[in-house]
Write a structure and sequence with these properties.
Length: 223
């Protein structure tokens, strides 16, 4: 798929200020008045936020820049989703314990999407085992944990059960081999991501999508 030209993403995290209207990645509605006014609006986060937040604990400049580039590339793919989808970037969970790269809310439900960029690398997936460049990783386990934790937090915020699906999107790999897809984590690549998302059946009506998104975009939901 031909990538659209990169947009300029605002770095502002102003509390509850409306996002720039030209952003196609997230078009938030007015903030629900019943939520705490001190909560930050995560719809204002720009792609690459997750990598920049991780920089606090990872002083390797090149490492977080590689991650940020991957998140930005995935965000450009997600910008082609229809208006019925909402996308949040760099969602901090707990007291900076973890950061979810992207949270998608749409007709197919909620998806926590982890971006993994390994330029010219190779990946091998066999169930819960994920190897990159011959080295074992915790990618599948961590993605599963993100989804399960998100389920608990969003269900509590929405006061109704919210199911969350986990996914991993590899960026800039030379080759990826999926021998057996993990049961509860979908593994794909940047170029195949949209095809997978658009193939998912609709499971969530528009009203419920808006309810979940209205809660998910506030930082206090994830604390």
């Amino acid at each position: 798929m031909t990538e659209i030209s990169a947009q300029r993403w605002t770095r502002s995290l102003t509390v509850l200020a409306p996002p720039r209207p030209e952003s196609r990645v997230a078009s938030p509605d007015p903030a629900p008045p019943q939520l705490k006014p001190t909560s930050r609006d995560l719809a204002l986060n720009c792609p690459g936020t997750a990598a920049r937040l991780r920089r606090v604990v990872d002083t390797k400049k090149r490492a977080w820049k590689v991650e940020a580039k991957g998140e930005e590339k995935i965000a450009r793919e997600l910008s082609w989703l229809g208006e019925e989808w909402h996308v949040l970037h760099g969602v901090e969970v707990g007291e900076r314990e973890s950061v979810i790269d992207h949270v998608l809310v749409g007709p197919a439900g909620v998806i926590t999407l982890s971006t993994k960029r390994h330029p010219n690398g190779t990946a091998w997936i066999d169930g819960c085992r994920a190897m990159v460049n011959g080295q074992p990783t915790d990618y599948v386990r961590n993605s599963r944990h993100e989804a399960r934790r998100s389920e608990r937090l969003l269900s509590a915020a929405c006061k109704q059960p919210v199911q969350v699906r986990a996914a991993i999107a590899f960026v800039d790999l030379d080759d990826v081999e999926v021998r057996h897809m993990p049961k509860d984590v979908y593994v794909t690549t940047r170029r195949r991501l949209l095809v997978w998302l658009k193939s998912l059946p609709d499971t969530t009506d528009a009203e419920t999508v808006e309810l979940i998104y209205a809660r998910a975009r506030f930082s206090t939901t994830w604390q």
